[in-house]
Amino acid sequence: MTRTISEEPAGSQSAAAEPAERPARRQTAPAREPGVGAGAAAIEVLNGGFLLIWGLITTLPLVWAIVSAFKTNGEFRTDPMGLPSGLAWDNFARAWSRANIGQYFLNSVIVVAISLTLTMLLSAMAAYVLARYDFPGNRLVYWGFVSGLAFPVFLALVPLFFVVRNFEGLPLVGQFLGLNSYISLALVYVAFSMPFTVFFLTAFFRTLPTAVAEAGIIDGCSHVSLFFRIMLPMAKPGLISLALLNFLGHWNQYILPVVIMSDDDKKVLAQGLASLTAQTGFRADWTALFAGLVIALLPVLIVYIVFQKKVQAGLTAGLLK
Amino acid sequence: MRHGKYPFILAFLLPGVLIYGVFMVSPYIQAIALSFTDWSGYAKTQTFIGVDNYRRLLDDPQLLTAFRNNVILLVVVPLVTVVLGLFLASMLNVGGRRRGSAVAGVRGSAIYRVVYFFPQVLSVAIVAVVFKYVFSPSNAGGILNSVLEAIGLDSLARPWLGEPRALIWIIVIVMIWSFAGFYVVLFSAAMQAIPRDIYEAALLDGSSRFTTFRKITLPLVWDTVQVGWVYLAIQAMDGFALVHIIFGINGGPEGQGDVLGVAVYRAAFQQTDYGYAAAIGVLLLALTMVLALVSMRALRRERVELA
Amino acid sequence: MSRSQQRRSIPTGGSRRRFLKQLGASGVLLGPGSGLLAACATGGGDDDDDDRQTGEVTEQNPFGMPEDGEIEIWIFDGGFTDRYAVELHQPILKQRWPNVQIDHHAAVDIGAELQARFVAGDPPDFVNNSGDGQMDTAQLVADGQLHDLSALFDAPSWDDPSVKVRDTLVPGTIELGTFDGTPYVLNYAFTVFGLWYNKTLFDEHGWTPPRTWDEMLALCAEIQSAGIAPWTYQGVTAPRYMNWPLLTMAAKQAGPQILVPIDNLEEGAWKQDAILQSAEAIYRLAENGYFMEGTEGMEFRDAQAAWARGEAAIIPSGSWLENEEADAIAEDPTFEMAYMLEPLLTEDAVMPYETLRATPGEPYFIPADAKNPAGGMEYMRAMLSKEGARGFTEMVSSLTSVLGAADDVELDAPGLNSAKQAFSAAGENVINWFYPTWYPTMENPGIDQATGKLLKADINPEQWAEECEAVTRQIREDDSIPKQTRS
Q1: Angle A90-98/A269-277 helices, nearest 10 degrees?
Q2: What pLDDT sits at residue B103?
Q3: Please, what is the Cα angle at A291 between A286 and A297, to 5 degrees?
Q4: B61: how many CB neighbours lie within 10 A of its CB?
Q5: Is C111's Cβ below 8 Å from some Cβ in B?
Q6: Is C39 touching A (CB cutoff 8 A)?
Q7: Which ranges constitute the DSSP H helices of chain A?
């Protein structure tokens, strides 16, 4: 039914045919055009070198932060680039207790679980309709979403506080929404992530082949099942990369929770970590901050590596189905 | 097909639009409304003062510096980031040719895929500390100057963070460094969606890697490149977080590292002049939207030519 | 106790306000601007007297605090942390008032946490307004958001009912927190400003603190020839730290009156002879290359760490420096820092060499709409007790504005000890200026940027004075900034 199915046999045929094809080409090409071969080899080396250098540039700061998490503050202050003389594990203990990581970690997990699910679901639904259906007001809604990207978030903070607080006065929903509520914060995250997510997902849905959708319609799929059973799986790589980005954004979000979560037992991880950075004119506990970041970083890295595998797995599954 | 189309559209749009409207648009509209008042940010009342705040925009020389810097970011950052992102993504996804499968990334691409994303997982606070050490003087651990001195280019070493004219270029570099990872992921996702047999065919034709990229990869991911570009432009118009945390609320020495986002922040929290801050915010909104619309149009035309 | 529980437990003034709240909420859903505007309009309702907790005024309880009430306290969680509040001040209060409940909060970004609550008319009872997210005090005063502290200063002190609180404070403390004749802010910590030198290095080479600027320049030449940078300052972050010795030396030269026109934003204030003379002296350091190489491109913490490592001999700062750089200082057990007075520009200076700048700092206030302002003031009164102030000095190595509270404290901090001695020796000759408190943006970025250029020798003292004049003019002509004056 889908194009990917019909493609797959062709793909495996060519893969099967390849071993026969390839050695032949490899042998003949240098013989025929030696100059090009040397040039190509040089480009190969250059490319490889660049990939490696960029890899170092992106890795070293992370390594530096992790190494710094094991230094004493004195070592860090006097020789920021040096290696630690021992492993200052108490940085982690300080970070854990001072940033209240145990409780805040859990709060972050709860909020992000709700917000990420809703963000992806609602954005995908909206983006799909905006990308593939003509209706009056389509462009208006689309640009309405995009304009949310262009206004400074911090100007919204005070009005946002009132919007959220005013929900406390409403009957029924008042007990679930309002300040210091996981649900409120999650909904705020959803609202603030939708512009970005809808913007990219609309583009993703537009690139999906029309033929598949038409085939689905002919098969008698409803609009809803067409979306959930065909389009959503096809957009999986895009969905996963955006989910990943949103996960990072929600996980590290600091300024929105500050306005909404003031209860000490409702704060999220980023608020806890910020207490380690307070520094104006005073001592900052930098190494505890690095330790806290390493703790906060672990789930992010795990999520990323799992997601990354999923992108690959998703594609393979799509091809084999 | 027509049957049930509108109820379906409505059902799919409404939940998202509702949440977006209540929690994001309504605070924003209130902020915009406050740009026509003299509200300080702490007072319990405010007075309507018409367009006075907008008039003040015209004779604020610091805004001009901030705007100039946004334009520099706008021109340089998307260009370099997109080129870099495309190059890295194509190397990781379709760049390799050695092993059995015809279409794969270069050797080590599984590792690169992870490490290129590292800047994204570091919080802005850490990014700022790292780059302060990159650009600080060598006797304060400065990496760049130490490298320059080690390879005998002492004359190029500068106290970068104290050099007004260098400031915005520091932001350019940090932005490209921290944004590139996302675009590698984004473009990778788009490239993964390209049917493999198209590449097989090209390989059989004996096309070079560059030709394959230009003739196949680029046109097929162009939609993604287009939105990526526009989004980068929007990010470049912002730049608040990095500038604020690296140079501070005043935009560094002589305010030469300033951007509009920081100017809004300064007006709101340092000068406690929320009404004026909101007016700068509206200006920023207008500029960004015009920019997004124009670049969407311009890039769309490009796509037609390629296809 | 959590905020939401607390909010529910407080009587909300009946159905009228609930109705208004619902109106506000529907306004959010329906119309532009109406959410905040409606909330603002009704926000004033929250400070209705029906919310205010009161108790009986007695000699023991001068503000009439409810003896079983709750005080909501917000402490900036920065260099001092909030330990002094939890472990020291709150037990002192609880000892006298066992039934008072304290709802303690620590915050890194005070402004972000509390701004909206001020607007909503629902602020806490006591705020330590400090740190990066510090709220603009002058603006809060102008917007009527702060509570008058006159009653506090006129109340009997915690330890001795026959002495008023105001008479237990270092002179100038109340004035610094006074706006338009009304005291709103209690500045509790006490800072001595000046120069700090590496005593270990000085002793090693037989150098002594110079008495005059000529001696300073001679000493700098000597330090430089020993391969050490004579000076450094807080680099790219805060060149304004150098402005402090500049103004102090000018005041020593021509008398404290020279600072008044500056605070009053008068034209020509920065072009007074002594100011120019002092700028010239500082400029000489730049011209001669006496600042550590790279200082102009350094973060303040890196410059301070370089000084603590012995790469530079002298640095300007307030007495928080020792606490701030404790980690770097601890790395080298032989390192000892000491306080150095700013030298006299010439021998015929009007004020004695012992003159120094010292000022209360670390602001605390009570919001006008607090539910229990009397509780907030009682908390302040407890802080200002001998035990509270003494304990604070011991715990966070900072002096307080309570007279004599630290006299018999043996400080484990040689730098602070030397500053304490200098402060005693100064006697009456203590100076300060107010414009950084009154007009924060004038000090930073205004004067800060001008001074930064002077220190790089990008501009000369005359051009520097011109730039300072321009900054002053801008503040003077900006009607949106509330003005203060002094004589």
Answers
A1: 120
A2: 65
A3: 120
A4: 8
A5: yes
A6: yes
A7: 3-32, 34-68, 73-78, 90-98, 101-132, 138-147, 157-166, 182-207, 210-218, 223-225, 232-234, 236-252, 255-260, 269-277, 286-320
Here the tokens at position A161 are: 């506080």
Q: What percent of chain C has pLDDT over 90?
A: 68
For residue C126, the distance in angstroms to the closest alpha carbon of chain B comes to: 17
Check whether C473 has a pLDDT greater than 90.
yes
pLDDT-wise least confident of A138-142, A288-292, C241-245: A288-292
Chain B CB within 8 Å of residue A55 CB = yes
CB-based contact B132:B246 (threshold 8 Å): yes
* φ and ψ at residue C402, rounded to 5 degrees: -90, 125
Tell me the CA end-to-end span of chain B in Å, nearest whole number.
29
Angle at B58 between CA B52 and CA B64, to 5 degrees: 140
Q: Given pLDDT bands bounded at 50, 70 and 90, which one contains residue B226?
A: confident
Q: How far apart are CA C91 and CA B268, in angstroms?
A: 38
SS3 C28: helix
Interface contacts A/B by beta carbons within 8 Å: 259
Q: Which residues partner with C156 through β-bridges? A: C164
CA dihedral B280, B282, B288, B292 (to 10 degrees): -170
Q: Which of C386, C428, C427 is nearest to C409 (CA)?
A: C386
Among the listed residues C144, C108, C110, the one whose alpha carbon sits nearest the alpha carbon of residue C126? C110
pLDDT at position A32: 40
CA distances to C151, C206, C361 from C166, rounded to whole Å, are 10, 45, 16
Q: Assess whether pLDDT exceeds 90 at residue C201.
A: yes
Position B3 scores a pLDDT of 58
Q: Which two tokens stand for residue B132?
A: 């302060």
The pLDDT, as a whole number, for residue C413 is 87
B31 vs A156: CB contact, 8 Å cut-off?
A: yes
Tokens of A70: 């094991």
For position B102, what pLDDT does the model report?
55
3-state SS class at A15: helix
In DSSP terms, C234 is beta-bridged to C238
C340 vs A265, more confident? C340
Identity at C245, one-letter amino acid code: P
Name the pairing type of β-strands C185-198 and C312-318.
antiparallel
In C, minimum Cα distance to A260 occurs at: C113
State phi, psi for C313 to the nearest 5 degrees: -95, -35
Verify whether the Cβ–Cβ distance B273 to C480 is below 8 Å. yes
B248: CB partners within 8 A, 6+ apart: C237
Contact B161 C236 (CB under 8 A): yes
| Inter-residue contact B283 to B37 (CB < 8 Å) | no
Helix (H) or strand (E) holding C70: strand C70-76
The type of residue at A33 is: E
pLDDT, averaged across chain B: 86
Rounded Cα distance, B1 and A28, in Å: 55
Q: A266 — contact with chain C (CB < 8 Å)?
A: yes
- ipTM above 0.90? no
Percent of chain B with pLDDT over 90: 41
> Within chain B, where are the H helices?
5-20, 26-34, 52-58, 61-94, 109-115, 118-121, 124-135, 143-150, 167-192, 196-204, 209-212, 218-238, 240-247, 260-265, 274-306
Measured from the Cβ of residue C370, the count of other Cβ atoms closer than 10 Å reads 26
Phi (first) and psi of residue C187, to 5 degrees? -95, 115
Looking at residue C265, its amino acid is: L
